[in-house]
Amino acid sequence: MDADEIRPPSLLALPSYLAGNVARIGHRLLVEALAEHELRLAHFAVLAALSDFGSLAQHELADRLDINRSHLVGYVDHLEQRRLVRRERDPDDRRRQRVALTPTGHELLRDLRPVAERSQEQFLDVLSRAERRILIALLHRVLHVNDEARLANRRQR
Known about the structure:
Elements lengths: L8 H4 L2 H21 L5 H13 L2 E2 H8 L3 H13 L3 E6 L2 E9 L1 H21 L5 H28 L1
Antiparallel strand pairs: 1-3, 2-3
């Protein structure tokens, strides 16, 4: 049996089946790379979001990352224990907590970005640079449309 005969052709015709299986490969490599730094992908996502957007209210951080708000608390707790982030009262609404990167968090993220990029290079090494750019652009488009629908749905509530 060769690689073309392993999976059922009827499943290989489904883009969501292909995307899910390919995503698991890239996810595994990224998770393994981050685990060497005692972090999970969600921790890395929180650090990256705070670096990209600045300090955010916890609920906004969860929404931007599409992470369950109650799960986010645990991720932020872990990062706070490692002094990578800090919680601070929102000056506009004292009932809310904002999360911000610490200098240590900025430093670690600067070191983690190349680690993440190398894992993705390994993941997509079968594709040319042009093919990678096309794949990423197509995935962005699908994600963007989903995010727009998610935001519209939230506004209707």
